Amino acid sequence: MVESKNNKDMLGRSSLISVQQALDIFLDHLAGIKVGTQSIVVTEAFDRVLAKPIHSPVDLPTEARSTMDGFAVRAVDTFGASQSSPCYLNISGEVKMGEAPLGDVKQSCCYKIPTGGLLPSGADAVVMLEQSVPVDDTMIEIVGGVGSGVNVIARGEDIGLGEEALAAGRLLRPQDIGLLAGMGIAEVTVHKKVRVGILATGDEIIAHTEAPKPGQIRNINSLALAGLVLRAGGIYTDYPIVSDREEIFLPALQQAVQENDIVLFSGGSSVGVRDLGEHVIQALGPPGILVHGVTLKPGKPVLIGMSDTTPIFGLPGHPVSAMVCFDFFVRPAMASLCGQLRQAELPAPWVEARLTRNINSAAGRRDVVRVKLMKKDDIWYAEPILGKSGSISTLSRADGYFQIDEDSQGVTENTAIKVYLYT
Amino acid sequence: MVESKNNKDMLGRSSLISVQQALDIFLDHLAGIKVGTQSIVVTEAFDRVLAKPIHSPVDLPTEARSTMDGFAVRAVDTFGASQSSPCYLNISGEVKMGEAPLGDVKQSCCYKIPTGGLLPSGADAVVMLEQSVPVDDTMIEIVGGVGSGVNVIARGEDIGLGEEALAAGRLLRPQDIGLLAGMGIAEVTVHKKVRVGILATGDEIIAHTEAPKPGQIRNINSLALAGLVLRAGGIYTDYPIVSDREEIFLPALQQAVQENDIVLFSGGSSVGVRDLGEHVIQALGPPGILVHGVTLKPGKPVLIGMSDTTPIFGLPGHPVSAMVCFDFFVRPAMASLCGQLRQAELPAPWVEARLTRNINSAAGRRDVVRVKLMKKDDIWYAEPILGKSGSISTLSRADGYFQIDEDSQGVTENTAIKVYLYT
Predict the structure, then answer these.
(1) Strand runs (DSSP E) across A95-154, as ranges?
(2) CA–CA dist A356, A350 (Å, integer)
(3) Which residue of A has its CA nearest to B95?
(4) Are A43 and B129 an interchain contact pair (Cβ–Cβ within 8 Å)?
(5) How far is B129 from chain A (nearest CA, A)?
(6) Which of A182, A296, B345, B411 can pair with B220 through a Cys bridge, CB separation 3.0 to 4.6 Å?
(7) Could you give the maximum distance between any two Cα atoms of chain A, in Å?
(8) Considering the domain B65-153 in this protein, what is its CATH number?
(9) Is residue B19 very low, low, confident or very high in pLDDT (cuts 50, 70, 90)?
């Protein structure tokens, strides 16, 4: 078990840890905690996470089939056939789509067969139409011999009876649904969607549909975070905005913890509000606060804790910071809770671009820099969008971001960088 | 207007064109054709495509705010202040969250202010808590001077009244929804979701829930294509499986064309079935067939046509081919029909990996090679999955694919390649 540290600095603030340390600590606490499962029809299973492995109940294809239009043959009959030395076969039958061929292919005979047609008994290969010349209605000339199995997909070649088709933890992509359909599997057991409760806190926050009085500010975070939850495959409950006072905030958070698998709250970024966030997470019982801020910009003041088995994230109030923290911490927590494997382990894909100006960073801190992409002379350039982390428009103008790692003090103009797109 | 070519080769087959030529031809025909629009609340607008530009109805923030915990000051009063030569200010007030500050900040005075607090009248900057030392309850020592505007987000700095916030054609991402909320926009006009009709044709095809008799095959394509439609932001209708006979297929296709914005059919890959596909597309009226196959593997036999304003795609029967054609042709058609801008123009992100073996390709053809990614010593390797395009399990085992372009005859082992992930 990785231990969280609770060292405080001279101003009484908790010491920061790196993004990776934070992930290690809380994913370690989440190990073994999973949301429940449910059985659903495959037509609804797209983008869900498989809870149990699937073994094929059939050989797929169920019978050998032709992969070409042509003639089903005994390969041995075509041995050595070429343009200069063709062989001749009698057309003794025809395979029709969707039907079992009658009879079997005897020596020096062949059946006409369409792509996908079931290979008739006796035949073990298919000669493509292009390698044949009709002699008359009953005979063809073969100008290219084939080996056994050529232009045929064998029984069970796609997937064999009993073979593991899909592992538990697989996020079901369109092709996985296709494979399930091919095997005749109509229902699968998947993890339930992760329920994420979203709370906005702050005496100054009002609903986006209300008109702000002086000092009030519309709720940006709840809507933006809801979109991120949906994109990560979860479902959300958007709770009413609550006050920063403990007697109101604590019971509201407690209720959200009872009703969800993960709870996010985002509030002001002032020290007082952050202290209250720490306090209420602790008040909801062990293990309590796990992470008191990270060496990440924007996103430094993030709080990560747990009440029993429910992760609680205290996201910074600034929208850009809140969304960066979602990507770095909440998304992996959601994947962990439904046991998502494999794809979660793959690297995040990127686009290469050249930075349009120098960007400085402090060593020991990871910086997330929003960029706009522009193409010039077939080269992509990334223009940093400089703006305060309270400015949501900077994130809306961004096509993606790049990272400056903890061990770097900046990136110079024209450097090739990896831009991760906001999709 | 780019003209489609209908040249036939010696075997009477239509000549193939490149993927790019095919895209140019049919996207040119689609220019100006758009699905309708609808007004929806922003909480439902995630992943929808904006039909009209949004201009900000407000200055955001509506008033200047502090971005730090500290003291709202007149910057001029702090000029030159430092550790060795501090200045002293009287604390004459305090800003509370969600409230308009009373009075104004007079010379040599300051107000206590939290992050996000509204800047009081008279003040033009904020001194961070860390740059101040309390003298007593009514006075602080400032050990770092600030210039005007420091630690303040100005009125309209995020986005100004009347400024274009989001362009028409923008796919609304979580941060765009956040920006809309911040501006107090509760409803937006978006394009309707593109309706895609999916038809499986073939006398041998049965529903995935049925037990196949010899020669029959379960319907893989309709389910896999439905997943791809959802992922591309559309909605689908899965029509009953129809026979390859014209008198059944033609009216079924006609009905689907009337009821959808795009129609996909996938059928057998035999020449006869393909000819029928060409014939029925032509029979549904001009412009008719636009593309008779492309130099793409897998996916060569794809048919692209239009009946009046409705694109019709005759996808190959092999599942892998059908899905590759969806990615290359149907997805761009869906984006075009809802006027999706910008993100559609960005490059597809990739992961760099080293190829584990030599892969040959024919010049003049684009190859799409499925790969599995594996990490060894911190390097990602891409192992090609070799298998027939009728084998859906090859696509399910794949993490992504790479392309071998028309002008290449193959890629050698250990070459660094761009792998596009199947997400």
Answers:
(1) 109-113, 125-128, 132-136, 139-142, 152-153
(2) 17
(3) A215
(4) no
(5) 10
(6) A182
(7) 98
(8) 2.170.190.11
(9) very high
Instruction: Give CA–CA dist B338/B50, Å, rounded.
Output: 9
Cβ neighbours of B270 in A, within 8 Å: 69, 97, 114-117
Report ipTM (2 d.p.). Answer: 0.93
Domains A19-36+193-345 and A65-153 share a fold: no
**A171-185: pLDDT as tens digits:** 999 999 999 999 999
Q: Are B69 and B115 in contact (CB under 8 A)?
A: yes
Which tokens belong to B149? 């505007």
Q: Which of A226-235, B40-49, B197-206, B270-279 has the lowest mean pLDDT?
A: B270-279
> Measured between CB atoms, which of A153, A218, A269 is closest to B116?
A269
Nearest CB partner across the interface for B392, out of A175, A212, A216:
A175
Kindly report, residue by residue over B259-278, the tens digit of the pLDDT: 999 999 997 667 778 889 99
Q: What is the pTM of this model?
A: 0.94
As its CATH architecture, domain A19-36+193-345 has: 3-Layer(aba) Sandwich (3.40)
pLDDT for position A423: 83
Q: What is the pLDDT of residue A342?
A: 59
What's chain A's average pLDDT?
93
The CATH H-level (homologous superfamily) assignment of domain B351-421 is MoeA, C-terminal, domain IV (2.40.340.10)
pLDDT at position A387: 85
Query: With an 8 Å Cβ cutoff, are A101 and B398 in contact?
Result: no
**Beta strand segments in B171-286, E:** 187-191, 195-200, 205-206, 217-218, 235-238, 262-266
Q: Is 3.40.980.10 the CATH number for B19-36+193-342?
A: yes
